[in-house]
Amino acid sequence: MKDFKLDAGAIAPELPVQPTAVTGDLFANLRKEEKEVVCLGQTFPNDAARRAHFTALLAEKLKDPEFRKIEGFPIGKDEDILALSDPPYFCACPNPWLGDIIKEWEAAKPKRKGKYEREPFAADVSEGKNDPIYNAHSYHTKVPHRPSCGTFSTTPNLATLCLTGSAEPA
What's the whole-model pTM score? Predict the structure, then answer.
């Protein structure tokens, strides 16, 4: 049996990463860059320093018996929880920084001009099921596409809202 060799350049030539082997580290080249990282208002020389700082804080938090009483706390060793975590963004236990992350995210969002008001869309959505697009696949609970098309054409910025999460024009 021949050895399988992955050629990342042939798959995605625009990526600067070349794997060392099939089981090697695909992101080794990206991790070599030492860039300053800002996280929750604190500046770190690189991502490894950020991770070490917040991992140490999480290790201290794991020693608190009240923290372990939170519903949904995993049953496991502290070392395993820390190994699976990338604090403060992801914790394999209830995230003690979640409130801080949400505050930072809310502060970064652009402020709205005025009050947001929009009437709910209400229209008759009964539509026949004999359209060629509808008949292409036989899934009995699907919704005919024509009522959805009408919703997009009559509601301003709805397509933008569905694609970007913001009703503001691009």
Answer: 0.51
H-helix segments, 14-97? 28-31, 47-62, 65-68, 78-84
For residue 21, the 8-state DSSP code is S
Nearest to 168 by CA among 80, 101, 109, 126: 109
Contact 121, 151 (CB under 8 A): yes
In DSSP terms, which residues pair with 86 in a beta bridge?
90
Rg (CA), the chain: 25
Which of 99-105's residues contact partners 24+ apart within 8 Å by CB, and which partners?
Answer: 100/40, 101/40, 104/40, 104/41
CA distance 151 to 162: 12
Q: What is the pLDDT of residues 46-104, one digit of tens each?
A: 988 999 999 999 999 999 999 999 998 999 999 999 999 999 999 999 999 999 999 99
| Distance from C-alpha of 97 to C-alpha of 57, rounded to nearest angstrom | 10
Which residue is it, tokens 């030539």?
Answer: 13
Report which of 101, 99, 95 is spatially closest to residue 67, judged by C-alpha positions.
95
For residue 100, give both structure tokens.
Answer: 């801080």
H/E stretch holding 42 reads strand 42-44
